[in-house]
Amino acid sequence: MSTLDKENISAQELSDFLQEIFRQDQSDPARTKAYDCHEKLLARQGDFLGSELEDAYWDSLSREALHIAQIEAAMKHDHESALKYVRLALDYAGRVQSGFYTFDWINYLKGTEAYLLSDAERLQAIAEGCDANRNVLQNLLRGLRQSGAPDYARDYSAVSAGASLQDLMPQENIEHLQRLLNLENIGRADPTEVAWQLALHHYPELAEVVREKDTSSRFDGGSIVCPLNEDEPVGIKYNNFDLSVIEELMQHRPKSVQLVAERLGIPRESMTPLLLKTFIFLHEVGHTYDYITRFLRPLREGQDPLPKTYATADWRTRFQDELAALPIPNMAPSQLRMFSIFAPLPELARQQGAKEEVIRRAEQDAEAVLQEQEEAYKRGESEQRADDFATKILREDILRNNA
Ligand SMILES: [Zn+2]
């Protein structure tokens, strides 16, 4: 076993620990586990200092501290205590050294701090210069201006409550959907459910798909579950994200948000967490539609005795071909991002047999190559088809901006 292997094992263990903390944090939508998670992280500080994962560690601590601040403010109405935790979150965030913090987290924390100090002017200045969480900060600002004092539960919930259909679309579009789906009073319905009903309405072949909620992964929107044999259904696992998680995702992936907005034909500012969540869900449904219509159906029509088994094999082959064609071959972008925390990107690129020119660019600007990997992946056939599926339903029936 080489030294590198040993380092990887221990980095793996630390990474698992951070993921487990995150799972716990997310296991309760009210984030009441944040206190416990924060303690557990502090107890392992010695293991992370000086390790490859030190930045990820401070990042986790910073997030737990903010979650505690949010509970102190929203549930206990203790804005004083919330302020202490926001400052602690800022202190942790300030220890992150690398480009790991490519997003606007620190501004978000500073804006929250200004809010808790009732400093509307400072909050406004921060909100204007902040891409990430701008709408949260603007809601906080609006509340502060209206009443002169912070009331976090009231002002923050202006965002987090945005989880029903009427938060996603104007009343006339809701009426259109009600007529289309022959339903009544769906204004308060969960948009994911309505999106599913719409998909079924337009594509009845989806009726055989079994849906399953999956909350095990942080930023993973979900995935198709291909049947391994004839007895298994075509499945979809999807993440019924809390909108605050989408809010975070939008910070990490500004480019992706921009691309989705362009596809939908709307300005970037109109991309809300709820709209993106609905897009992500429909994208996953799009994968199952692609599987059923292009892989499974021809085999069924050809009377193949094992249609699901072979459809899944063909599906995997296509996926592997797509991965093989990426700048850094045979590694999905999310996986690459994860591994790039443990090992330098040029080294990973070399191991995966990337072209010299890609390795060189990875040496100069790792983040740019990570983004290229993501963009190349998205241009692949399966991603394009899933995006097309989601785009069509959103444009025609939810946003109705295709006319
Ligand atoms: Zn996909």
Count of separate DSSP helical elements: 21
Radius of gyration: 23 Å
Number of domains: 2
Q: Helical percent range? A: 55-70%
Largest beta sheet: what is the strand line-up? 1-3-2
How would you concisely characterize the structure shown here?
This protein is mostly helical and 403 residues long. 68% of the residues lie in helices and 3% in strands.
Structure description:
The chain has 403 residues and is mainly α. The protein has 2 domains: 3-160; 165-325 and 380-399, no CATH class. It has 21 helices and 3 strands. A 3-stranded mixed β-sheet has the order 1-3-2, covered by helices on one side. α1 runs parallel beside α4 and α6 (105-116) packs parallel to α8 (134-147). The longest helix has 29 residues, at 273-301. It is globular.
Strand-helix topology:
Layout lengths: L2 H25 L6 H10 L1 H4 L5 H21 L4 H15 L11 H12 L3 H9 L5 H14 L4 H9 L4 H4 L2 H11 L9 H12 L7 E4 L8 E4 L9 E4 L4 H10 L1 H11 L8 H29 L5 H18 L8 H10 L2 H7 L4 H9 L1 H14 L1 H19 L4
Parallel strand pairs: 1-3
Antiparallel strand pairs: 2-3
Helix pairs in contact: 1-2, 1-4, 2-4, 4-5, 5-6, 6-7, 6-8, 7-8, 8-9, 12-15, 13-15, 15-16, 15-21, 17-20, 18-19, 19-20
